[in-house]
Design brief:
Layout: H1 2-8, H2 25-31, E1 37-41, H3 48-61, E2 69-73, H4 87-100, E3 106-111, H5 119-129, E4 132-138, H6 141-151, E5 156-160, H7 166-173, H8 180-185, H9 187-200, H10 204-207, H11 212-235, H12 240-252, H13 260-267, H14 271-283, E6 287-290, H15 297-302, E7 306-309, H16 325-340, E8 345-349, E9 351-356, E10 361-365, H17 371-388, E11 392-396, E12 408-410, H18 411-417
Helix pairs in contact: 13-14
Domain DUF4143: 229-355
Protein name: ATP-binding protein
Pfam family, one: AAA_14
Amino acid sequence: MKAILTEQNPHWQGEHYTAVPRERLSTLIDYLPLRQIITISGIRRCGKSVLAKQGIQHLLEQGVHPTNILFLNLEQPWFIEYRHNAAYLNTLYDTYLQLANPQGKVYVFLDEVQFFQNWQVFVKSKYETGNIKFILTGSNSSLLSNDLNTLLSGRSLNIHLDTFSFSEYLRYLEIPHQDELSRTQQRIAILQAFDNYLQWGGFFEVFTAPTPAIRQAILLSYAQNILYQDIVPRHQIRNAATLERLFFYLMTNATREINYTTLSQTFGISDKTLRDYLDYFEETFLVKRLERFHHKPKERIKSQKKLYALDNGFLQTATKPTRNLGQALENMVFIELNRRALNLSYVRDTYEVDFFDGQTLYQVSYSLEDAKTRQREIHALEYFGEQLHKPGLILVADPLSNTDELPVDTVATWLLRH
């Protein structure tokens, strides 16, 4: 056990953690001095462990002694036989105290904490009795929030981490983009990077893979790992094959409205089971449903939903992979607006607008070259702009698209301006 602890904590031997800084690191740094437990939630492989280790590196640079920081990746095979025994977490912690003999405040990072049953009992006991700061990462939204709220209501702060944003991707590529001048000078490089990001999304291991075939294989493995390791065992799903087929079918139809009746009939499952499966996909950050705008909250909840993937790369795992760039562009805009807006919806009544964040109406179109497309997008924004008294913006991929009636911006530029 001591060897395992030592192996998982190379900073005890003076090693440093280096990686592309994530945008959420500043929030983590702000939260570290506070008493509350920090939770870092996000889809598998989005970089939660790396963000946690960047937090460790910050603590080391602030003068915290290395042995006062414990990092445990609870997903590792060493712990499989103990996952049903929360008391083993106490054993690990006691062994750490004997091995490292920390003095003063201790920082405990538990990575992928949901792999241990009743982990929250251990965290609560140590939180209330010791001088310990907990930082937890997890790949299931309801597990983290529900379990912590049950035992430690109001004593935790969450940081949600998505896959790499476009700005973070450019930072990895070392393409300057922080100001208007650098974006102008690097225009061609940024547009080339945008095309790649539009297709393959923001998973680090995906966009750094050497070939499209390897990228697609990695994305398939990510999706299947989530389905078969996070969803199937937790919810004791017997018909796992149907669950898998449903997910990849939904990737074919991402950005479209969900018809629960049609889907349940297509897959031979009940309406309740279908809705449960969609809930599980959302809990593990694979997809998100978007409500139709209505002034009454109850009507929004009852409205027909549209479904989006939470990383563009998953569109390449669809049952019928497509190069529908309009679909990919709309999905990308959704992901970015979902990062920013708490009250995002789509609007439909005579016309349809893709997104409304409470302040601005957004219409997404790959190009405005076609006259009918241009007029349709403009009329929809003008119609709802008058009704809701809100401005509209058309987001396009084609940098040559323009119109005199309403503001137009390229998605690549828009992503970097906010």
